[in-house]
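Exercise 4. Each item below gives a protein and its sequence. For each, produce the structure-token representation.

Item: Gamma-aminobutyraldehyde dehydrogenase (Planotetraspora kaengkrachanensis).
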Amino acid sequence: MTTLVNPADGRTVADVPDTPAGEVAAVVQTAREAFEQWREATPGERARVLLRLADLVEGDAEELTRLEVEETGKPAAVFRDGELPFAIDNLRFFAGAARSLEGTGAGVLSKGYTSVLVRRPIGVVGSISPWNFPFIMAVWKAGPALAAGNAVVIKPAPRTPRTTLRLAELFAAAGAPDGLLQVVTGGADVGQALVTDPGVDMVSVTGSTETGRAVMRGAVDGLKRVHLELGGKAPALVFADAALEHMAAGVVMGATYNTGQDCTAATRVYIDRSRYGEAVEALRDALSRVRPGDPWEADSDIGPLISAEHRDRVDGFVRRASGRVVWGGAPIDGPGFYYTPTLIADADQSSEIVQSEIFGPVLVAVPFDGEDEAVRLANDTPYGLASSVWSADVSRALRVSHRLDVGVTWVNDHLPIASEAPHGGVKGSGFGKDMSQEAVQEYSVTRHLMIKHAAPEARDSFRPA
Ligand code: NAD
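Answer:
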């Protein structure tokens, strides 16, 4: 049993039973049976079920908002008016993508043979998700895999399981075969039981880099396909010609959205030395306007951190930090697990505060001299997920962005995403893409059908291509 705690006030919200690790195999077996039906569904049939699911999610907005806000403490308006409509748009995109998952007709590649390429589902996908965006992550995991014709067993993070459980209920109500999307609950042991189950053909995890390694190790014996969306430590590169107020507003939004518990959060601001002082001041001003507060109050910009332990962890990073605290730097008193938005200037590049993923509303500022140094510092962490470049010079912004080892670079903004655009990292941030047609492709395999069309007596037509 896991007791869920509301991070905004520390009160118990609900008790959710954990799935015994020994029962995961039976869940996977049911998923295999559902897969055998679903793989025969036409793309149009799959799309219709996903579109009905999107409508049911839309109709369930109030309940989903209550569950997500109770478990994460994020502002209700942020979820209801932002993340939830986005997740619905994701589902509608995946429904459309199911119908355009085409292999190419490859033509006559060897004399006497016609080749056809078809995309087929992989089987049962075991998915593991984190607590920072519980509902969106469940949609990003389940949506493309189901669109491609797979069955999915998903394990949400132990602190935030209920919107994922609700998604599976709504999916069943949308007319999906029984057992096609199932949820197992619990911690790492249940996650490992899923990853190592021989009935699971592919594993997909969004979580920390360390968890990604553990999942990959668990998938080795079965040689399973692995999809890893892991941690991040996004740099924001501010050049001398950037509009500083605009930059400060965008970087601070990027650093504090979801209380910084975001793998793409702006965490390191590198600023051209000629405007360093001004930029740090602009960042401090913007940060001072961010209002942590009750998730149900309309004027709250950010909620608490996910737990008391996580708040202590964030505070530990800040206390040990190199550099000077320009703003914030302390927990906020009260029953919830709030932390002040924090800016640390003059941090040392090799220090922990610059190198490690903190997952809190903490921004570090470091000066640079010239483009080459900016790029070198930006690339100098184990991660490679997101980044932003702030400059009025579009040539420079493009030039610099091409040199960054990351999955996404925003120019003069930080954070926006779209259902059509692939999301995923390189280096310690993992591999594989969420959203977009690429995600649907990742949950499918290309098969080659080679059909002999030569007359039966033509025996000499085979030769290696
Ligand atoms: P976490 O790694 O602690 O847990 C993620 C999930 O993995 C949970 O469901 C957890 O129970 C499970 N898990 C943990 N250890 C496991 C193991 N050994 N085997 C199998 N499953 C295991 O991460 P978190 O604290 O829930 O989430 C925060 C992390 O997620 C951050 O590092 C963040 O950057 C990352 N994240 C990445 C993306 C992305 O798209 N790249 C998006 C959101 C979050």
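Check: The chain is about 40% helix and 20% strand.
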